[in-house]
Amino acid sequence: MSDPERKKLINFLNNPDSYVHNPGRVEHIQTHASDIFIVPPYVYKVKKPVDLGFLDFSTLAKRKYFCEREVELNRRLCDDVYLGIEKIVTDRGSFYFGNSGEVFEYAVKMRRLDDKYFLKNILKFGKVAKSDFLRVVEKLESFYKDQETSEEVSENGKPENLRLSIDENVKSSSDYIGKTILSSTYFAIDRYNQKFFKHGKDLFLSRIKEGFIKDCHGDLHLEHINICPDRVCIYDCIEFNDIFRHIDIASDIAFLSMDLDYKGFPQFSDFIVSELSRRMGDSTMYEVLDFYKCYRAFVRGKVESIKCGEEEVPENERKDSADKARNYFRLALKYALFGSRPCVIIVFGMIGTGKSTVSEILSEELGAEVFSSDRTRKEITGKAPGERDNKGFGKGIYTPEITEKTYTEILRRGFDNLGLRGISILDATYSGMERRKRVREEARKSDTNYIFIETTVPDDVIIKRLQKRKLDETSVSDAGADMFEMFKKSYDEPSELEGDNYIKIDTRGDRQDILLDIFNGILDLQC
């Protein structure tokens, strides 16, 4: 299909007069693979003539076949919404819906689902309860139990085949490094995948044996679930590639769980996983869940990255897709490093070793809030961030009493404000063993992951940094070179953290090197 022909087709479908039922208006929505035309009370979906490798709609015959597959497969979970296939024919240079004339294109015709019942909108307006998710669970439970396993379907659950699919997904996303994903994040997620495959082979094989690889939905997220008063409709499953649909039910469920995490509803994410794992008799779902959630978040990052590079997509939508891509990649990184549980990162070490710099770059890449002892100390003593206190070590606003209040406050804030991404960063020296112990106890009490990151550089580098800091009027820290020796004597080496969630990082590298060192250090702690 030439560009002028495609433009003419789009103009035809954008014209209300093209439809027999005279809709009055047309709303055109684009994805990376389809053009969707909302013409109440119907929706028409036309596949783009593209070949993306994992998806091939490049010929009319292929588009016809996949339109038919879309209707057939989606009727499993949304039977009366998918009405069939409509032919778009051409006659004497004009387009029509009908059977007479040369077939130019095919469109899937659906009933329009009411926007207010889409799960993403119900969540947005705060009108959802666990009972709504229970209806979704019951629908999915019935669906999964109806899907029989077969040798062909189970083949895609084999570790070597699953690995090919995931490796290809990562490889094909390399073009977005520096655009929507940082190189450190990209390589850390790739390494996480390889480590999981290395240690999880028997787990994957056991799930095949237990019959958990089925013909699933494949694209199970909030935008595809509609909860009407009388029914639950789950639509728009993957039709273009059987490999993406012949998957572990844990992978299918992980998509919805991930999307709920992304939107800031971890309580519903946990509920759905807990209910479905119990109802399906799946005792090992949790062992693969974070792996699949990482994969699903990465896929969404890739899809949004594709969309933000399509010139025909309006600029505001491309910008929105780029932002979404970055956030999905960040979420994938969170799963790879810390799993689904919330996590507190403690960046600590000697003065002048780069704690605040490391905290800042981690904050940007993980979407996490930083709770700094320097800023908190100034705040609770009524001083401006840049206001200096030069009374010396242990004096002024650095008395033991104020220091104790400062550490108590950042600990409280860090655990109370884990935020949308479920991560907080504590930026403080934590020079005393007792204060580090207190963080660990709070983390264990609240079932929160934690990781201690000690920043280090040679003493001569510290001195130079502290001398330079003294001239920087924007610096919040008051620590100067004259305090170094006294501080060093009071610093308890973190020997008690050896063998725990603890890594040591040299901060003399550039931003990406530091991040990758941190990510690799965390991955090395995993089994």
The biggest sheet, with number of strands, parallel, antiparallel or mixed sense and barrel status, is: 6 strands, antiparallel
For the largest sheet, list the strands in their spatial order. Answer: 1-2-3-6-4-5
Q: Number of folding domains?
A: 3
Shape: elongated
pLDDT averaged residue by residue: 91
Assembly annotation? single chain
Structure description:
With 527 residues, the chain is of the alpha/beta class. The protein folds into 3 domains: 3-112; 117-338, Aminoglycoside 3'-phosphotransferase, Chain: A, domain 2 (Alpha-Beta Complex); 343-525, P-loop containing nucleotide triphosphate hydrolases (Rossmann fold, 3-Layer(aba) Sandwich), CATH 3.40.50.300. Helix content is 48%, strand content 15%. It has a 6-stranded antiparallel sheet with strand order 1-2-3-6-4-5, with helices on both faces. It has a 5-stranded parallel sheet with strand order 12-13-11-14-15, with helices on both faces. Strands 7-10 form a two-stranded antiparallel ribbon. A hairpin with a 3-residue loop joins β1 (27-30) and β2. The two termini are 51 Å apart. The model has no long low-confidence stretch (mean pLDDT 91).
From the structure above, extract its key features.
527 residues; alpha/beta; Aminoglycoside 3'-phosphotransferase, Chain: A, domain 2; Rossmann fold; 3 domains; 6-stranded antiparallel β-sheet; 5-stranded parallel β-sheet; 19 helices; 48% helix
